[in-house]
Specification:
The protein has 10 helices and 7 strands. By secondary structure, it is of the alpha/beta class. The chain has one domain: 3-Layer(aba) Sandwich (Rossmann fold). A 7-stranded mixed sheet has the order 3-2-1-4-5-7-6, with helices on both faces. The protein is globular, with a radius of gyration of 18 Å.
């Protein structure tokens, strides 16, 4: 498929439905990993890459010391617009459009880098890693997480398989190719070290995921991701029948009220 589209109604649906379903718990985990670093450097300069709608930004901001600063960046202005609209506000936090493969910051400008589920989308991963290393001060830390494969993430696997059965002649590869298609630890370590990081630590993390209803979960996946644009590209202007079929599949596997599963991720700490 073409480059993933996070625009139109997608950013708000992503934030309102997909966020609580799969991102919030990992945002809290990311923030908890950064907090000890702030205790040893209360004036830390933090850069967040691929901040999306600001879910991690908001979590980090709640424990940001008064002397610290956080610049949250994303290449997608519509996603940043949603982030600005929903951010609860905190001193020292700003939003800025930026390409992770060509960061508009000086060398060694930050003490901490964070990226939640963005690395998989960077078109040149080695270049993005080199840029991260360039803007990171000596002794700094880069924490990023990546979804494990669909094999270990049952809910998006069910969505992917359902879509494949509904549109067999022109399947939508988004879930398998991008968010859940970059989980080989050896390759991730190779890229991280090629970017200039000497140390690379991996941790597997798994949290429950739950939506109040299977209908809301289906809406999150179908209308809160680039799947929505992919359907339109295939001439499916009304996503309702697709969403209903996904809801039925999710209900069968994970229940209706609520619809519950688990999500597994890989957290990488590089320094």
């Amino acid at each position: 498929m073409s480059s993933p589209t996070f625009s139109g109604s997608v950013p708000k649906t992503y934030h309102d439905f997909l966020g609580p379903l799969i991102f919030d718990a990992y945002a809290r985990d990311m923030s908890a990993r950064i907090t000890p670093l702030l205790k040893s450097n209360s004036r830390a300069r933090i850069l967040e890459l691929a901040c999306g709608t600001g879910i991690v930004t908001d979590s980090i901001a709640q424990s940001l010391p008064s002397g610290a600063s956080l610049i949250a960046t994303d290449i997608s202005e519509p996603m940043l617009g949603q982030a600005r609209a929903t951010f609860r506000g905190a001193p020292g936090v700003t939003f800025q459009t930026a390409d992770a493969c060509a960061l508009p910051f000086k060398d060694h400008a930050f003490d901490i880098l964070a990226c939640q589920y963005g690395v998989m989308f960077f078109p040149d991963k080695v270049k993005a890693m080199q840029e991260a290393r360039r803007v990171l001060a000596p002794g700094g830390t880069y924490i990023f997480n990546i979804w494990d494969s669909l094999e270990h993430n049952p809910m998006p696997r069910t969505v992917h398989e359902t879509l494949a059965s509904l549109i067999p002649a022109n399947p939508i590869p988004f879930l398998a190719k991008l968010p859940f298609g970059y989980s080989d630890r050896a390759e991730i370590e190779r890229v991280t070290r090629a970017g200039g990081f000497a140390n690379c630590n991996f941790e597997t993390v798994e949290f429950p995921c739950s939506a109040p209803t299977a209908s809301e979960a289906a809406r999150a996946w179908v209308e809160g991701t680039p799947i929505f644009a992919a359907l339109i590209e295939r001439g499916i202007a009304d996503p309702s029948p697709i969403r209903a079929a996904v809801e039925k599949a999710l209900t069968a596997s994970f229940g209706d009220k609520p619809s519950r599963s688990t999500m597994r991720a890989i957290v990488v700490t590089a320094s």
